[in-house]
Amino acid sequence: MKPVAIFRHASIEGPGYLSTFLDLHAIPWQLIRIDAGEVPADRATSFSGLVFMGGPMSVNDNLPWIAPVLALIREAVAGDIPVLGHCLGGQLMAKALGARVDRDPSRELGWGRVDVADHPVARAWLGDLSAFEPFHWHGESFTLPSGAVRLFSSPYCPNQAFALGAHLGLQCHVEMTEEMVRTWCRAGADEITAYPGPAVQSAEAMQIDLLQRISALQQVARRLYGRWITGLRRPPR
């Protein structure tokens, strides 16, 4: 089986629980460290799927790797190679597919409830789940690409996730681990202070009941990732 390519855009925003999930399902994966100067792959067909993680930059920034990544996403979607995006990754998917990514009126930093849409596509991805609490860390968000279906939303961000066939774009973070939350709280202390708002938690609040929150979130992640890997191309037996 060809590996899943995981694109990392910041050293502290790696695959997290996703890597554990892929390992448990014996799915090979390859980390491409954009933050360390590694270049995007030339062809999406080198991989069984593409995953894009988060990062502090904007998809609207003039960075040399963004245009090749957008082209890679379009190639993958056209070729039915599943694409999965987390936060910045979801924004990259949206922009590649013709949607907009705009600055939010209020940042979302920390834990916050999202409500799952009541339609067959959302149920295919999340079963009977009606709401859950993911982790958020964003100041921009996407509109929906043509043909995409909204999966869930929050009071501060109507488009928290979209599905387009086998492709899944997330604005929130479902890949979090306990260590990642604690690291982000330390690294993002200045951002938390600089952007107070109704959806911004203190670092202390983000770490309350952390083990229980992570455990609940990983249950949701297993549903989403489990659905996503069904689209991966596997060699015939």
Briefly summarize what is shown.
This protein has 237 residues and is an alpha/beta fold. It has helices at residues 17-24, 66-78, 88-96, 120-126, 178-187, 189-194, 203-206, 210-229; strands at residues 4-8, 29-33, 49-52, 83-86, 101-111, 114-116, 131-132, 135-142, 149-154, 157-164, 167-170.
Give the count of helical stretches: 8
Oligomer: single chain
Overall average pLDDT: 97
Structural domains: how many: 1
Order of strands across the biggest sheet?
Answer: 2-1-3-4-11-10-9-6-7
CATH homologous superfamily - what is it?
Class I glutamine amidotransferase (GATase) domain
CATH class group: Alpha Beta
Helix content: 25-40%
Give the structural class.
alpha/beta
What is the overall silhouette? Answer: globular
The helix-strand sequence is EHEEHEHEEHEEEEEHHHH
Tally the beta strands: 11
CATH architecture: 3-Layer(aba) Sandwich
| First and last CA, distance | 11 Å
What is the CATH fold-level name? Rossmann fold
Question: Which secondary structure elements does this structure contain, and how are they paired or packed?
Answer:
Elements: E1 4-8, H1 17-24, E2 29-33, E3 49-52, H2 66-78, E4 83-86, H3 88-96, E5 101-111, E6 114-116, H4 120-126, E7 131-132, E8 135-142, E9 149-154, E10 157-164, E11 167-170, H5 178-187, H6 189-194, H7 203-206, H8 210-229
Helix pairs in contact: 2-3
